[in-house]
Amino acid sequence: MKRLTDGCGMLEHAIGRIPRRNEGYTTDDNSRALWACIAWIPRVPDDERREWEALADIYTSFLLWAQNRDGSFHNNFAYDRQKEMETPSDDCFGRTFWAAAALWSSGLPDSIRIAAEHMLSAAAARTEQLSFPRGWAYTLAAYAKLLASDARPLLEDKPEFAKRLQFKQRFDLLEGNLLQSYEQSSRKGWRWFEPMMSYGNGVLPWSLWLAAQAGSRPESLAVARESLDFLTERMTAPGGWIRPIGNDGWAGPDHSSIWDQQPLEVMKLALAASEAYRVQRLERDADTVHRCREWFFGANDCGVPMADPSDGSCCDGLTPDGPNQNRGAESTLAYVLTEAIYAEVAELKQLERGTGRASEDRRTVLK
Q1: Model confidence at 367: pLDDT above 50
Q2: Helix, strand or coil for residue 2?
Q3: 140 domain residue, yes or no
Q4: Of residues 326, 329, 255, 261, the one with CA closest to residue 299
Q5: Is residue 146 part of a domain?
Q6: Which of 88, 156, 214, 215 is deepest in the core (most CB within 10 A)?
Q7: Of the candidates 193, 196, 195, which has an alpha carbon nearest to the alpha carbon of residue 206?
Q8: pLDDT tens across 234-282, in order?
Q9: How many Å apart are CA 253 and CA 326, to the nearest integer?
Q10: Are 266 and 246 in contact (CB under 8 A)?
Q11: Among the listed residues 338, 334, 323, the one whose alpha carbon sits nearest the alpha carbon of residue 290
Q12: Are 86 and 10 found together in one domain?
């Protein structure tokens, strides 16, 4: 991450592990990078925390700069920091809104969290203009994060901020949009939100697992479970390892592309399965997270490692000829986030085992 980052933000692409400055920056990648910092800061030793916080400052500054006056976010920037021509993206908006919500809900100092409050306040009204499922999903996840039990006391101290976000109205709208999309596309043998499975699929069930923890509609939990099970099945090879939906043709009811496999797809499945484990504590979800992590270390269709844990980098994709050796931002962040997701599930399992032992001790004492 440090290699890909300069004083402006995280660069998008690399040749091998060397950043390609002529390819510039994206808000998407800087949102993911901020998310990775938030995920790792509570887990690193104190002597490493300042380095992670310094990176978080850079990525947060980038997102502030990328936000337009109307609250939306521009995505693509050249290396000279000029905006490139583009069509506005719901995905970019939702991904950045999520990163800001994660930052605001984190344990980081108020001196950085205030920037997240600024971004969320400016962007909130635009959530009603989102038109596509992944934009809905990321933004719904952000609202669920802000409504989570550990963030509620912070909101109670910020009544004006909470009023600007209009939680009830917008949470219900986004959740309803996703459930309606599922109802329209799902049928026997195809338990999914769209007629095709394309990219970033795991964010759709993931957002509903988060919504379920924020007091959502009962059907959200059922759809989250059903869609995640379907996605896990479609992303599992006959041999049991993870096989991402390939971006060379995607997947439909009667076909599924194998190549080219993207690390991002593996991370998104791990993300959804980790939230499922948090809610239901089913071992099969923890196993999915484990298999996703193992994909990066060789448990994949080519039997080759994708990630280099010695420096944190990850190959951009898996092809029939093996890994694409370029190691850009999206793939590297997918690996770094998957490691954080795996660590979180391991912590939950350890806590559960500890609780079980404590319960057994109490029963012994009572007996």
Answers
A1: no
A2: coil
A3: no
A4: 261
A5: no
A6: 214
A7: 193
A8: 999 999 999 999 988 888 888 888 999 999 999 999 999 999 999 999 9
A9: 32
A10: no
A11: 338
A12: yes
